[in-house]
Amino acid sequence: MPRMRVLALAVLATTFLAAAPPAAPAASGATSPQAPAVALPDTGLFAPVARRYRALLGRDQPSAPPYTVLGRVHQLLATGRTDEAVARSASLALDTPGARVARGRALLAQLDFASLAAVEPSLGATEDERALRHAILFSRDDAASVDSLTRAAVAGKDDAGARPELVSAARLAHEQLKYTLADSLWRRVLAVTPADSFAPPWGSDLGSRRAAALTGRALVQQKLRDWDGSLATLREALEADGNSDVLMTLTETLIRLGRTDEAISAAEWAVKLSPYKESAHYLLGNGYARKNYTQLAAAYPAAFADRAGRKALEAADALLGRGDREGARRDYAAVIASHPGWVDARARLASLDFEDGRFAESRDGCFAALRTCPEYGRAHAILAKALEAQRFVVDVHRAAYEARFAAAPVPDVPGIEKFVANWKALSPRHQKRVALSVAPWATYVAPLVAGGASYYIKPMWMLLSDVPHIETLRDTRIDYDSRLWDDVRGCGGFHTVTGIEDVERTIFDRYNTVLHELTHQVHGILPADDMRRIQEHYRQAKERDDATREGYLSRYAGGSVWEYFAEGANALASPMRDAYDPRDVVRERLDRIDPALRALVEGFQMRRDVSGCYPVAYANGGDDLLTQGKVDPAIPLYRKALEIAPANETALLSLGNALLLAGRAAEAESVAARAAAAHPASGAVRVLQADAAWHAGRGLAAVRASLASARALVRESDRYRVDGALGGYALLAGDGTSALAAYDSVLAYQSDSPEGLPGRAAALAQLAADGKGDWNAAFTQYDAAVRMRTGIVSLRASYALDLLRAGRVAEARVQLDAAKLLDERHPDVEALRGWAALAAGDVKAARAHAERALEWGDWSDLARIVHAGALRAAGDARAAAAWEAFDARLAKETRPGYVFRKELSSWQLVHAHGAAEAAVAAALRGR
Which domain holds residue 828? Predict the structure, then answer.
């Protein structure tokens, strides 16, 4: 989309959003934001949403036909003015079905369960009243009652008269993972709910009912991974009634299609239409953000504490860390009283309110913060959990959850107070819950502590990068889904983090995040052969899933071998609550779908001799230092590991790779030879040998030949690693045929390999560039790769480069825009922007992009190529000198190397001098 069009949309959106009336006095102390200052799109997918919203707002005009009180309540609800709707509905006498429904819907939208209790007994037997009763039961997680109320209708034949029952039965079937049944029920609903051809612009009840049924069908299509089909269904639902339920279902589809920016817009629209929409706030607070926190502070400079304010907040944080909760509360409140616009202060108090069970206060503090800074992820995240906690209060299972938790003995986990870095800051309740989650892996705590690993339970106000040892994640994004690390609930690694909210909700049979992330840590210190066993189980599950679509406990488990193993551990510790338990990661499903994974996890948990984990734990400590760019301090840790186990595969691999990062290729070759002698069948070791030889200047042809020869010596389960490396080297050499064969082998091992998919796309592109293939086939493959991993900058850049080679400038810019969201200052991406400008005839812009790229990273060969090309295109006499300088640099830097990008805590391969880059240089030279 051209930039001027974006600006025009922003102005338009601001105009119609500002037309919303000011917030009415809140009911029950709630203070929801009524006019978020984000510019909401009104074209494309969102055109029907904006059209209906404008039509509803148009009814506010004096010239519009007057509303009845009932109509006014529904209009207020549909336009996101929930608090005003609750206030208006209070005047209704509950003596008609319409009044009872209007009042009940308003209270349910605001999660005012206390007031709702007075309405519920009066609900009668009309269609809308029955639907409302079911919705209230779902909000309490009372699936058994829903089942009893709907079973007869499902078995009956009066679908038109039983529409609410069919809708609720379909929802229940979906929650119980009975997707075929759910789809059949949604089809029955749609058969008696035709499109409303005569609906006014602001919508109709029939349209809303049809939208709900279409959304249900789309949810089933998502579970079947029919993402394009679900998008088509949701487009129809948006036309029928683009409400917040449709929009939040749409977010999942858009994310899976790699359309992250539109997913964020869908969630923002959902918040606009339903300010108390828990799932929308959760998404916007779980990393789906356009701005990182540096950019957010620049965009809202008055919304965050100044230096003195930060010191005051840090002093209060220290009180909380020492267990002085009242002192922290007092000091947070004092800062807010002095500076009510500081959202980071409000988030701290809201987080503490949540921990102390003051959910309404937590909610209202977040609403206040979002009125100041509507893009503040921490406020969205805390608000989502405060709203969820309000539902937990009325959950029909709550008493049983609490009783079971109280009856569970506190496990003895030696060393837990050292392992959990902020153990003393946790309440006794949360200490117990954390210990219960750590207990299954208690044997592994000692090697984790010995290696320097830690676990941190994060208050919700904290950014992930505020946690000790995680500072390097500041402003960075997750590669597989583009989320902002700072806003995600936690992370698993050498230093693992879980949010306090997840500790609390585990008591209520929600996902055991502490156990999940700890399992990643344990996985990370297992010896190499144990890791191979897990990898092989994962490969077999992938194979089953390709055939049956049910090889995993969850979609998340299929994302990587790490998630597969962690989901298995979670399922083992999570027996079903009852027949209506909606969780997919439970022990019973593990036994049915993947009993071998259960046996694998149990075997590791029962292991008592974990001596083999210590060398790996020390090596992991070195790897952690590498993420900070500290190669020299890391090497002694690898040496320490090798003193304990001189042939340890993991330690040798880590040492060899560290030496390559440090530019010590000859030493790396020596370590690789030592590793190959000890582990000749290891694919990772053979790849290290090849990399060391390449960096040592042995020549690409010799490296490829040697690695291809070694492939036969590698165990079959490890050959995919060798094939991936062979594919990469073939691409560097411009050998598309060999690259395609190598990546096809990778994909034969794992059909959705995150390395194989983009590698195959690049191979197809190389063949197309050589006149031996089809560009469209390459770009179809690239699209599949991007859908799998939306947040990988190098993938977006590779895609853009090949689009530019094919002359598709506009499409290349789409990928470059996506890459910019992930890494704002990537020199190669900026250089490609320069090439795109040059291809469009804008020589001045091309030169500016190239110069900016060189300013950000003078190591970028691509930036030098584009800069010289721009000078040539401009007829600048300095072009010849620029090309001569580039050629001299090329002759001097015959070996690849690495640079550390501190701002992203990542290592960048440089001076690889691949064929694609050479082709760009040739094209821009005019050869």
Answer: 792-927
